């Protein structure tokens, strides 16, 4: 089984001391909050207790640079469901890499991964095009290497869920 509490514990044991960052479940919406005078640690907040939401938000954190990690939600824009084609293209441009990393996390812990367009009104062609982009990004990361924090967490998940990376399949 995949429990949000396990994910929180694994992340916090791995990154709290080294990166002053904790994973927090129970959010109404996902959100990244840098440390401030009221909170000594950076917080990655994921939706409710959804394991997949936690993996996704960790993936965003793993690719955010030092400056981005000093900004609320890494300084990115977000347009809710119902985006037009141009807005959806912008979404896909910034989401392919985190979703590819989330896919690798999912495989490391033997969890099914589902592409998220985050745009329920979008045409099915968008879904196919975006899935191909995420798959290509994943292949590139597998060949050239994952960002260091992502690689560390893939290893942590693989050990905890007893998944040998060579056994991965899509």
From TrEMBL:
Origin species: Natronospira proteinivora
Classification via InterPro entries: EpmC (IPR007411)
A Gene Ontology molecular function term of the record: translation elongation factor activity
Protein name: Elongation factor P hydroxylase
Keywords carried by this UniProt record: Elongation factor, Protein biosynthesis
